[in-house]
Amino acid sequence: MTTQITPKKTFLRRGALLAGTAILGIGLAAGIADRAFLQNDLAFAQPIELSGTQTQLPSFADLVDKVKPAVVSVRVKTEVAAASDQQSLDDLPPQLRRFFREFGDQEGGRQSKPKPQIGMAQGSGFFVSQDGYVVTNNHVVEHAVDVQLVTDAGKTLEAKVVGTDPRSDLALLKVKDSGDFPYVKLSDSKPRIGDWVLAIGNPFGLGGTVTAGIVSAQGRDIGSGPYDDFLQIDAPINRGNSGGPTFNGNGEVVGVNTAIYSPSGGNVGIAFAIPASTVKQVVDQLKKDGKVARGFIGVQIQPVTSEMADAIGLKDAQGALVAEAQGNGPAAKAGIRRGDTITALNGEAVKDARDLSRKIANFAPGTKATITLFREGKSRDVTFEVGRQPAA
Question: What positions does the domain PDZ occupy (predicted)?
Fold first, then answer.
């Protein structure tokens, strides 16, 4: 139902002014004040000129024409195994569990096999190659049994899931039919804070929608995993934009939209995107192997606080404190032990525990690496072979 708003015939500012002057009995003053009010309104409606030139807002039309054909809507049919009757009974108190079992036996029939739950999901994606590879979010295609892509021109394409990476929330799709598809490039550099960016996607299933904003922060940790390194995009991005690209002014993808900050479920102007550098690493591995292999050191670590730094003699509160070195892990084999503070990796300073996790994860399993430790007031280098991170 559409609610129609009827404009009021009474203008409050003008009406209040006339009413006040009528009470004072100054009719002539009312007329003068009324004319002055109208003149002020007319003056306000005139264009404002600065130094003889009129200010113009930037247009993104040329950029949109260039990149929009490479962005697609992702429609997914999902299938999730339903909980069995036995699993449902296990959640009940013993007396009720026994009652339902006996009742089922009296009915004499076999318990039916639970049917899988069928659902639908929608998101966004974009072509990264001419032969039909498409990047989107893992959570868009999770549990997918059927994937369709709808292009900007309205054409529907059947696609398959090549591989997924839940830890980075990225997925790689491939169009089943051969073709020559418009695609976009992943940026080789991070955007600067304050740069204009353009987000294109499929919010609320509406189809291709374009919004603009700026990059307001880098390296955001939103608690989604150990490798959080999000760009914060301050732009109107909503549900359904997941998996869609954020472009810089050159038409290169600087991030993949993944999450929004929303206390109410709607847009409040804050979104988070996976940086293009991470997308490149993940997509290359998914295209090659269908999965992502990350480096593994085998330690439990924690941040170094100012109190800890003072206690162990560190000049600055940075690095990662080893809480435990897992038995037979790469770190333990290299002699790293509890109480050591990891301050650098291959000569590059380690800011904190999260920074170390991201750096180690970027190493290919089997790679030789050198860790700088701070132990008993002295620094020392330890060389080890990076292991393979266990499956989640």
Answer: 291-352
Amino acid at 329: G
Strands 53-54 and 71-80: unpaired
Number of domains in the chain: 4
Do the domain assignments include residue 51?
Answer: no
CA 343 to chain CA centroid, Å, is 29
Q: How far apart are CA 254 and CA 276, in angstroms?
A: 5
Three-state SS at 149: strand
Report the alpha-carbon distance of residue 189 to residue 252 in Å, rounded.
10
User: Residue 300 above 50 pLDDT?
Assistant: yes
Alpha helices in the chain (DSSP H): 12-24, 27-44, 61-67, 85-90, 94-107, 138-141, 276-289, 306-312, 330-333, 353-361
**Which DSSP string corresponds to 171-197?**
EEEEESS-------PBPSSPPPTT-EE
Strands 368-375 and 378-385, sheet pairing = antiparallel
Per residue in 102-126, pLDDT (tens digit) is 655 544 444 556 677 888 889 999 9
pLDDT value at position 204?
79
| Planar angle of CA 82, 122, 271, nearest 5 degrees | 115
- Which domain CATH number covers 266? 2.40.10.10
Catalytic residues: 139, 169, 242
The one-letter amino acid at 108: G
Residue 313 structural domain: 295-388
**284-292: which pairs have CB atoms within 8 A and are 24 or more residues apart?**
285/163, 285/165, 286/162, 286/163, 286/164, 286/165, 286/170, 286/171, 286/172, 287/133, 287/162, 287/163, 287/172, 289/163, 290/162, 290/163, 291/163, 291/164, 291/165, 292/163, 292/165, 292/167, 292/168
In the block, residue with structure tokens 């709808």:
150
Q: Classify 77 as helix, strand or coil.
A: strand
